Amino acid sequence: MHNIQSAQNIPSYIQALAPVISQYGYLALAGLMFLEDFGLPVPGETVLVAAAFYAGLGKLNIILVILIGFAAAVLGDNVGYSIGRLGGRPLVERWGRYILLTNERLDKAQTYFNNHGGKIVAGARFIDGLRQLNGIIAGISEMRWVKFLSFNILGAAVWVNFWALIAYYGSSYINIFLKVELYLTIATICLIAGRIIYRRAVKARIRKV
Question: For 33-48, what is the mean pLDDT?
Fold first, then answer.
């Protein structure tokens, strides 16, 4: 049993989950991670970090935390994929125009996911927002399920082990990597926004010519 951490060093956001972890344990880990991974706004990543941290205090088993977290992440994303694949396209065709998501743009997204979607699915785990929605987007884009599943498993394995082991071996590393993730999310949003603005500017120039 691993006990190098001290209860006095527990970060406040982990302490807030202490009652949930104490009462529901692995069930809370499985349920919240599963729900987060098909788009619901629940603290899946935080409960993974909390569960691994408490495993470091000897209150949970780190191997079970990793296995349960991995299974919940993969299953949740596959539910999201199913939602997007089975109901996403008709929903977008009906309501997409209200968010400027036309059929033409959706077709381009489908092609992009088929060509590069694996990288997005694997890397989206580390970007808040994309982590919750990448399964739905992949399903709407009609990415092949076998390809999605393969990269989903790869991304989940790296992401779960990364956060679980960092939290397990010490709280001093958690805040650093959470800040890195936040900056990565902000940078991604800025890049996407910049790309959209650039394309619109180019189209505007072409129309003037």
Answer: 83
